[in-house]
Amino acid sequence: MVEITEGVTFDTIAREWRCKWSEEGSKASLAAAQKALNSIISELKAVDGVKRVDRVVCGGCLDFKIVTSLGADKFGEWESASFAPETSFLKELKAIDGVTSVETQTYTLMEM
């Protein structure tokens, strides 16, 4: 377990990939984003140390997010590998009509 400061510990680090999708075309951009995820999900789940992969979709704010959680002791290895398959997945998201604001974020998680 890693301690950030007194009383603030974590054992998991997550990498989030996110974008905004459009309701146009019967939500075609959301369907395409899911298809892109489906094409890499096996590779993502096979990353050494992955605890879980979560997909978050918000129909109100039009968010599509993928959160990959790894044990804190394994995260550095994935980071050294440039979070593969991040580059190809984000490139595919950016090419989808209606997808905007493609971003990434890294943060810690701790079950309370």
Key phrases:
112 residues; four-stranded antiparallel sheet; two-stranded antiparallel ribbon; 3 helices
Q: If you had to describe this structure to a student in words, what would you say it looks like?
A:
- This protein is α+β, with helices and mostly antiparallel strands.
- Helix content is 36%, strand content 39%.
- It has helices spanning 24-45, 72-80, 86-94; strands at 2-5, 8-10, 12-20, 50-58, 63-71, 100-109.
- It has a 4-stranded antiparallel sheet. The protein has a two-stranded antiparallel sheet with strand order 1-2.
- The chain starts with a strand and ends with a strand.
In whole angstroms, the N-to-C terminal distance is 13 Å
Strand content: 35-45%
Uncertain segments are: none
Radius of gyration in whole Å, from Cα? 15 Å
Quickly count the helices.
3
Sketch the major β-sheet. Answer: 4 strands, antiparallel
